[in-house]
Specification:
The chain is of the alpha+beta class. Helix content is 31%, strand content 26%. The strands form three sheets. It has an eight-stranded mixed beta sheet with strand order 7-11-12-17-16-15-14-13. A five-stranded mixed β-barrel has the order 2-3-4-6-5. A three-stranded antiparallel beta sheet has the order 8-10-9, with no helix packed on it. Helix 4 packs across helix 13. The radius of gyration is 26 Å and the shape is elongated. The mean pLDDT is 96. Homodimer.
Length: 433
Amino acid sequence: METISIIDSKNHVNEKVKIGVWLTNKRSSGKIAFLQLRDGSAYFQGVVVKNNVSDEVFQLAKEVKQETSMYVTGTIHEDSRSHFGYEIEIDDIEVVGESENYPITPKEHGTDFLMDHRHLWLRSKRQFAIMKIRNEMIRATYEFFNDEGFTKVDAPILTGSAPEGTTELFHTKYFDRDAYLSQSGQLYEEAGAMAYGKVFSFGPTFRAEKSKTRRHLIEFWMIEPEMAFMHQEESLEIQERYIAYLVQNVLDHCDYELDILGRDKDVLKRYTELPYPRISYDEAIKMLQDSGKFPEVKWGEDFGSPEETYLAEQFNKPVFVMNYPKAIKPFYMKPHPTRDDVVICADLLAPEGYGEIIGGSERATDAEYLEEQIKNAGLNLDDYQWYLDLRRYGSVPHSGFGLGLERAVTWITGEDHIREAIPFPRLLNRIYP
C-alpha cells in the first residue's frame, strides 16, 4: 500500500492508499461520518461508513477534534461534487497528534483575531489557495527571466544609501555608522546590468510608511529587472509579456486554487492579451478632470488610489501611464528629450481597483545630471559615488522596473486586502506573529 499526498489522488483511483492529514471539519449523518481533510497539497473529503469499519474507527471518526493530525487508510474514489474531484473511503485512522480547542473554528472571526492567529489561519482553505498562487507566480518569475536570458543578482538588504529618498527608511546602526533596510535593490541591479547585460533580483524591501491602506505593507517582496542597451519602449514590452506570463501560468497550474477563491478565469484570460494600452500622464490628468469626479486634481500631482482606480476602470486590461512629472519621481530617471518637466517612466495600473503593480523607467545616463539630481534630492553625494561610477565607465542606455509581488498576488487572486498576499504581513501596528 502506497503512502501518497492528496494531490496525487487522481493517479490512484480505486486503489487503497495511506495519507497523512489534518482534520479541518467534520459532520456525521447516522451511519456515515464525513471528514474534511487537508495535507498541504489539497483538501478533500474522507468518508467513514460504519458498516465497513470497526466500532473503534467509527467512534474515533465521530469524536476526532479539528486540526488533529492522523494517517488515514482507504480507497480513492472520484467525487464530481467537489472542487477537487476525489475523496477517500476510509478503512482505518491512526491519530498522530491530538488537537484540543483549536481557536479558528468554522464560524466567522474578526480580522484582528485572525491576524493574531496568522500562524494558524494559514491552514484555512482560502489562505492555502492564495499562498499556492503566490508560489506559482514566484516559480513562473524565475522561469520567465531565465528563459529571457536574465542573470539573478542578489541585492543587499542593508544599505548605506536610499534610492528613493530618506523619508521612508528604517534606520539601524551598522557598527560605527548608519545603515538602512533596503527600499529597493534597483541601484545594485543597475551595477549588475552593466556587468551581465540583463539581471533581476527578488527579495524583501522595507518602507517606513505610516499607511493603513489595503494596498500597503511595511515589508514586501520585489522583483526588479534591469536591462542594459535597452530603451523604455523595449522595457514596456518585457513588462507586459511578464505580467501576461504570470497570469497564464496561474491559469494553467492553479485551476483548483482559483476555483476555491471563486476567481473569474475569463477575466484573467483577458489580461494575457497583448499589447496593453498606453496613455501619457498628461492624458490621464485630462481624463480625470473631464470625468467631473476629481475637480481638485492638478497637473504635477501624483495619483492616489481613487485616481488610479478610475483610470484603470477605463480599460479592460492593465494600462501603462507614461511620463510623469520630474518633480514627483526619484532622481535616477532619465529626463524627457523634448520636455524639461517630465521623465521617461511608466506605472502599470491593474484593473479592478488594484492600482499600481509595476513602476519603471529608463535610467539617466549622464553623470553630471545625476550628480545634480542627487544634490537636489538632499542626499549625500559621497554615498552615491559608486553609482555614479556606472556612468563614468562605459555608460549605456538602460531601463528597469519593479513589481511588488504582494500587490500582483492580490490582483490576480481577486482578494480585497494585501495583508492576505504574504504569509506573515508586517503592518503599521502589527509585527506579531
